[in-house]
What does this fold into?
Amino acid sequence: MNEQNIEAPRRTPFIGALDRVLRAGRALGLVAPADLIKEHMLARAVEDTGLDDFGDDWFERPLDALLESIHSEARLNAAGDWAARQQFHHVLRDRLWTQMWFKRHPEILARPIPRPVVIVGPMRSGTTRLHRLLAADRRFAHLRSFETISPVPRPGFEDVLAGRKKDFRPKLASRIMKVARLANPRTLSIHPTGPYEPEEELGLLVASMWGMKHEAQWNVPGYGRWCEGEDATPAYRHMADLLRLIGWSQQESSLRPWILKTPQHMLDLPALLKVFPDARLIFSHRDPRAVVGSAASLAWNQTVIYSDHADPNRVGREWLRKSTLQVERMMESRRTLPIERFIDVQYADMERDWRGTMARVYRFLGLEMDSALPGMERYIRRSRALKRRPHRYSLSEFGLAEGEVLERMDRYIRRFDVSMEDAGDSAGSQRDRANQAV
It folds into this structure.
């Protein structure tokens, strides 16, 4: 491959201006300090909602680890710690409202989650395309983007169900996405979306302060390694209960299987299968040079917003390590899986012939595909409109060499006969074309 030297993108002027305004506001006493202290954050959420039941207090363990890493490693700027404060408050308030809904409507927790279809693959391996193609089939249930941002309906949602008012969450999601695009105009090329687009359940794991979203957002390697040594089952149990709540809020039939996906499952397959024992798994595979380069790019474009000390070389090394760990854990977990429970899908096959590849997936699922094709084709057209420019990145901008990536991932490449991309399509001159993101 002819690796091009591409400089890591810089932070946008919008973030620089926001950071200066926040610093000035704090100096004048007009803006409160972030106060990222657990006891204070819990008390603020209780005061804001008038509720005091956060559910299973296991979430405090990852929260403690995350806060310790933020204080000791993240080196957040003023915009970063302000955003962290808002994010934590949002999650903690949602936990309180979650328990409120379970008490008001105990039937929610009785909803079954039969035979979910779970797409499992490393970041940037085409899982979003698989997910959204399947979500176009009305025989499956799926999350929408506003529901992964705000999984929990606000008090008074009964009026929404009765048609007396509109759900505020899509409008909130739209506002958040507009701000995200100001902070990082590359958002649409890295992961094109909209409030109603099918989306992964990563936000449901964040509800337990769990998962790689935090590592892709902040420099918190200590937190990441803490999570890697823990049993994720409590986070997945809470995720399942949030799916039940979302299904109830959608007035969705509990008989329709959910389509799920997030790269976090690569690390947590034992917990996933403990909570969803009848899950059917679709494993996606892609040239690791593209996986690592694109994952590092995604993480860089977030961390550079929240810290003035983001280092592209550190980001590259961490996501090479993390991507390697994902595939190693996935391979280990698959050893005991019955062969009829899973199917492997190559990114390159989806590129060459997505219809033929999806037909093979539908045979695995035991379903005919013809009725789903019109919806899939509409998604392909819509994704091209969403994705306005290519996502460009290289391994070299993150201090990585192709040979090192290939060496670290050699066992994975050989085990799954991963198709390698040519110089025009891999990490050196990457073009994640429409509907390929994540």
